[in-house]
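#lab-general

N.A. 3:47 PM
ok so I finally got the sequence cleaned up, no stray characters, all 490 residues accounted for. can someone with queue access submit it? mine expired

B.Y. 3:52 PM
send it over

N.A. 3:53 PM
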Amino acid sequence: MKKSTTSKIYFKPVSMGRFLSFLFILSAIFSANGQTTLKERLEKHVYTLASDSMQGRKAGTEYARMASEYIVRQWEEIGIEPYRDYSFLQIFNNGNYRNIVGIIRGNDAVLKNEYIVVGAHYDHLGVKNGTVYNGADDNASGVAALIELARELKLNQSNLKRSVILIAFDAEEVGLIGSTYFMNHLDIPVENIKLMISVDMVGWYKAKGEVEYEGSGTIKNGKEMILSPQSIPAGLHVVTKNFESSIFTATDTESFATKGIPTLAVTTGQKSPYHKPEDDAELIDYEGLALITGHLKNTVETVSQSTDYAASGKVAKKHRGQQRFTFGLSASIGSNHHYYTDGAVDGKSATSYGVSLVSQVNFGKYAIRPEVSYERIRAKYPAGTVSTDNLTVPLSFVLQTVQRGMGADLFVGGYYSYHFDGKQGKEKIDFENTFNRSEGGLTVGFSLFVKPIKIGFTNRKALTNFTRNANADNAHLRNRTSYFTMTYLF
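B.Y. 4:20 PM
back already:
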């Protein structure tokens, strides 16, 4: 794609199918008395938000602002009330980003002070190397469903007992920033939010063959509630998953789930051209999108009316906040060699490995990490490789950063190791006269992690001698061990 010399807008070639769909939308908009179907309205929203003129709705750009203004106009026409009296907009990041927040108030004297939050992010990737990433499925489809969900709930507001907060989130693609900002600036008690539903990529129902509700396990009897036959429109196949499980993807449920709020991530998955320029409006399954919107409306109404609704108390592993105590299993592989305390010669390294039970006591950015390990460390010699079987107990001080289930840490500490067996070649080594069974030293390292997997590097340096007596050069042997580690956190 080439940049226009008269504007900052990039254009894709317009296919005949897209041109006809555009004409169809115009005719629907100007039809008599505005009597359009749900499917037609959804199509209008997606084609508008995913048009080339929106330039991919990248957060912080004028095109994202255009998208936000479109959503505001829709809710104003529907009659949605701004969440705050003066505006739908929640502006942040020095005015660059904006959430659009509306509310439909419930009618029960008590339950109206409890809230169901339904959100969909409206930003996408923008323009890369002259190519527009329109993001029709990701996530114009979710925003279209959110707009029409608002319409259906407003028409049936008398059925609502709990109140419904509707949010079009900004800056999801750059790190869930919009939803995180909303949760960090609540003006209602967090315990009053009873459920959060994120509608993210719901435009490829026909290709997927189902719509997924991930997180039913966070709600008491959640599966039964979602799969209630009377709530599922004819022709729609709904499946539930107890929890969101992917460690490589995230949606706007995260900042709610980490506060203990039940969450549902509603999606048709990544069947569409995910984060590719081919994710265009003409590929969306609008009949499926209409069915999904209908089921969302029924589910929200059910939750709003239920006097038995309750959280299960269970949270997905990826959404667990920092726990005081964490545990894991670790496997290590690397090398060890014998360092000579005197002289210029060093020993040759051999492959070494170990397994560990890891625990950690967390204090925010800091932690104490005790471990118990079985190790086989080895060092090469002409007369045969020296290997020892060891029980090792490291204790480390940890400096860590954790955000949205990802992070890194640096650690330093000491360790004690007991050599309970050893051989050189096939011969047992002499721990009574030649070698010491006990060893102590320093350990340092770092790791990177995306819950529940942590990958890192550890270096150990013995400060005590492996040999009881010095050699002819007045040198003792000490172990030097380096490991690559992989840890699974429970």
